[in-house]
Design goal:
The chain is mostly beta strands. The chain is built from 4 helices and 30 strands.
Length: 383
């Protein structure tokens, strides 16, 4: 929290969410710039040095006590309050040259003055401020490289193992000309937890042509496979021609074990063409109080084709809740064993999931062609 006098009162600024977001890799580009510029404003024209700069050059401060001797021995107070001693400098040169410190943040410069023999003759309190930034140039400069900005979003902040995560990468072109952009993305923790055959689902690359003033999006859906922890969607944008990095963004999310088990029961085991899937999803409300919820249903046929994808709202009871559902089957379904998954969403979080199998038998279809004797090749029947 930051507070300062203004007019007839005080301005109070709270960064509670920004602090949490920074710790969870969810703070946005504009929040980073806002906080940087706010601190610079409050500290009155603080010099800002980029990480690429190897040295920091500042005027030798005036003596706050004693006199300004021939030699100045700088003392830095780092962002964490630690003292950092510098090399001796000739105060007559009027400039202090410091090696760039590793830690980003705001520093204070002070030190002592000595005569030629090394006797202390004066002191400068640590009051000269400067800052070190580790933000990439396309962020630290306050402008997107080539006019390209990135943002990332997810449908939930919390997922359970087995759920689907839906993510969007948004690409803005703030420039005045069309841009060819390549976006590389990955989910490192889920990639590490996935089976070898499934790892390719957790990273990829997309190329886009983004018109000036326009926005394009990349939609990504992944099954969540890592347990009890977190992961991030990392996305990097590169110039499609030169390969130069233009922007970067990441979106954090949590992965947890289910809070409740969802049991699915269907009115029958075998369904036919024209039927609707009817049944109910039963679970115990982990919040122990009435709350609004969403039931999400996903089903695939024996060939792996998606045949059901719907959501319905309901009100969960304080204890056990049974949610009835009905979902019509499409006209074309591959016969065989089908799978049905249900996800219960309470208070904006997937609380539990469950699944079951059901059978489907389509109407017989006539074969087209000629049935031939394998040995002679003669036609036996036409169909």
């Amino acid at each position: 929290m930051i507070s300062y006098s203004f007019g007839k009162g005080r301005v109070v600024l709270s960064t509670l969410y920004m602090d949490w977001a920074a710790g969870n890799h969810q703070n946005t580009l504009h929040e980073k710039l806002f906080f940087r510029d706010l601190m610079t404003f409050l500290l009155e024209d603080v010099p800002l040095f980029a990480a690429e700069e190897k040295t920091v050059r500042l005027p030798v401060p005036q003596a706050d006590s004693g006199t300004r001797g021939e030699i100045f021995v700088p003392l830095l107070i780092g962002p964490d309050g630690a003292e950092i001693r510098g090399e001796k400098e000739s105060s007559g040169a009027g400039e202090v040259i410091l090696t760039q410190a590793a830690q980003p943040g705001y520093y204070r410069l002070g030190g002592i003055f000595t005569d030629a023999e090394g006797k202390k003759v004066g002191e400068a309190f640590p009051a000269v401020r400067f800052a070190r930034s580790v933000l990439p140039p396309y962020i630290a400069g306050g402008e997107a490289a080539g006019g390209i900005n990135l943002a990332a979003a997810s449908d939930f902040e919390n997922y359970i193992r087995g759920a689907e995560g839906n993510f969007s990468i948004l690409v803005w072109n703030r420039g005045t000309s069309e841009k060819k952009v390549r976006v590389d993305w990955s989910f490192p923790h889920n990639h590490g937890a996935a089976d070898q055959a499934e790892k390719s689902r957790y990273s990829g690359s997309n190329s886009l042509n983004v018109q000036p003033g326009a926005r394009e999006s990349i939609e990504i859906t992944i099954p969540i496979v890592n347990r009890n922890g977190n992961d991030h969607l990392w996305a990097n944008a590169f110039d499609g021609d030169s390969g130069k990095q233009m922007a970067r963004v990441n979106k954090g999310f949590y992965t947890r074990e289910p809070s409740t088990e969802v049991l699915l029961s269907l009115e029958k085991e075998l369904f036919r063409e024209g039927d609707s899937i009817r049944g109910k999803a039963t679970f115990s409300n982990p919040f122990m109080t009435k709350t609004a919820g969403v039931l999400r249903l996903r089903a695939s046929d024996a060939a792996g084709n998606a045949i059901i994808d719907l959501e319905r709202d309901f009100e969960a009871e304080a204890g056990e809740t049974a949610v009835p559902f009905e979902a019509p089957l499409p006209a074309r379904v591959f016969s065989g064993s089908c799978s049905l998954q249900a996800f219960v969403i309470l208070k904006g979080t997937i609380a539990g999931s469950g699944g079951t199998q059901f059978g489907y038998m389509g109407e017989p279809a006539p074969l087209k062609g000629t049935l031939r004797d394998r040995m002679t090749g003669d036609g036996i029947a036409d169909g």
